[in-house]
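Give me the 3D structure for Alcohol dehydrogenase.
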Amino acid sequence: MASNTFKQWILPDAKGFNSLQISSATIPSDVGDYEVLINFHFASLNYRDIVVAQGNNPFPLKKNVVPVSDGAGIVVSVGPKVTMFRAGDRVAPTFMRDHVAGPITTAAILSSLGAVVDGTLREYGVYPEHSLVRIADHLSLLEASSLPCAGVTAWTSLYGDRRLQPGDVVLTQGTSGVSLFALQLAVAAGATVIATTSSPDKIKILKDLGAKYVLNYREDKSWGETAKGLTKDGVGVDIIVEVGGASSVRQSLKAVRMGGVISLVGHLDSSEPLDPPFNPMELLASQATVRAIGAGNRQDFIALMRAIDANNIKPVIDRKVFKMSEAREAYQYMLDRKHVGKVVIDLRSSL
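Predicted structure for Alcohol dehydrogenase (351 residues):
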């Protein structure tokens, strides 16, 4: 391979991640006035990347897009008008390139990495400086690659319309990247965390991260009521980070307190029907807010990075790190739910 070219994965169509193909591209010799050239070292997967590859993402998909939104790397060069970064800086891109601040917009969604805009499953990429965030000194590039989608989503789940307060009770579900980030951030803020899992082997992991209570939702089919009973005077949970399916939403409605918040992040149990996710009367009875959550804006990412730095939080990375040549295997590993925390791909490894 010539020294001025690099390798990247592309998604020619949305027929599953087995459609992923390796291709070559040329490293830009120069960049635009406000652009930054990054040498990516690591990329990390989200469940959303599987959804995109399977053609189930509700938003547009660019043909031959470079997939995956999360990554971290080193600045190689900057445009002449760039002021925030310089060569050698360690950076991570935002999930939506043009969502700098404020509420979500259609334009922001149409700048999402790994679907409309080329993502991070490649050795080099060019992005505008307004879409990058400097990485906290105590994080490795491998750890930082886990943050742009899962970490920021967890942050906005806790600090969205109703901001997390010390003493709140937070309920998290499972051991996905979003759930574990939410657990760590909630504990750091002085909240009590109730976590759920289906695996007895993962109870210790959740408790070691600071969960006060861990419920096995396979053994306890009424875990929502159980969670509510664990709160003071049985009033219910303040914030729930909801990542499950239809039955999970119903249990969350049983767990949440009057006026509480359910941050609806995803629908991981694809075996369950989407219609209806719950009866409207259940929501009325709860008097809670159910808020759809997407990854936040650049300001949210900066706030997350500051919180991680101030509390010396280390992202949970799965023990198995994949080589660049093993991208398809990494997707399958995540789909099979063999992971704990974030699944990372080492882009420096030889193909």
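The two ends are 11 Å apart (CA to CA). Let me know if you want a second pass.
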